Amino acid sequence: LKEENALLRSKINKLQILSETQADKMRKLEKKLEENKIKEEKEAQDLEAMVQHVEQNLQLMTKRAAKAENSAAKLRQENAQLQAELRNSRLENEALRAGQAGLAAAKQNAEVALQHLLQVTTSSRASIRQLLSGAESLQLVADLLKSIDRIAEVSEDGQ
């Protein structure tokens, strides 16, 4: 009975040691489980924070993209207006060049007309001088005729 008792005690001691070992393992595993839970919670929080940060960045990028699209639309519209203005300016420039060509032709015609007027003026002056000279000659002849009439009257009286 003593042997059996000793054997049972030995088994109980072994079981107690095994139980303590398993209890230690259990405590270590529980501690590790708790650490893993804390670690997972921290990772989950970090992941949540990162997701929120990514969402904020996505919202900012969406706003920037919308602004860029609006800006691009405005720039396309402004470009179209500037293209239209450029076409109008080119047409106006061509019209002005055509007008300048007409103006150059008119200027040349005016120059030719001026030359003709100068020639006519010169010719008219010469004609006027001739007329004046002729008028003076006629005046001289008229004066001579008057003188002859007086001479004739004096001669008739003096005969």
From TrEMBL:
InterPro entries: ENTR1
Keyword NAD: no
Superkingdom classification of source: Eukaryota
Keywords, in A-Z order: Coiled coil
GO biological process, one term: positive regulation of protein localization to cilium
Stretches of the chain forming a coiled coil according to its record: 12-99
Gene Ontology, cellular component aspect: centrosome; ciliary basal body; early endosome; midbody; recycling endosome
Entry similarity comment: Belongs to the ENTR1 family.
Protein name in the entry: Endosome-associated-trafficking regulator 1
